[in-house]
Design goal:
100 residues; mainly beta; seven-stranded antiparallel beta sheet
């Protein structure tokens, strides 16, 4: 059993119905050693469901990272593209396509 010594992980979440089938949400986490993470996302339903998510954080030793992902899910395929910037400033981009 964990004791509450002030170093427990904190998580908060919120979801909002924007109307017309669009939902958005935010998640914030604070780690036990001081790191933090924040993520915001939005999804809209329809014939093609489109979602976007962006996130950023700070590691326990003070290094930052961030990224985002966009996806579209239709009746025949799903497409997804994302980017990530790591603690050293390096940047990666990826693209994926799936058929059903």
């Amino acid at each position: 059993m964990d004791e509450d010594d002030g170093s427990r992980r904190q998580i908060s979440r919120s979801v909002t119905n924007e109307g017309n089938g669009v939902y958005s949400g935010t998640t914030t986490r604070t780690g036990t050693k001081g790191g933090s993470y924040t993520s915001s996302s939005s999804c809209g339903a329809g014939i093609v469901t489109r979602c976007s998510r962006s996130y950023s954080g700070v590691t326990a030793n003070g290094k930052t990272f961030s990224g985002q992902r966009l996806s579209a899910h239709g009746p025949f395929r799903t497409r997804s593209v994302g980017s990530f910037t790591g603690p050293g400033g390096r940047h990666w981009v990826g693209f994926r396509r799936f058929r059903r």
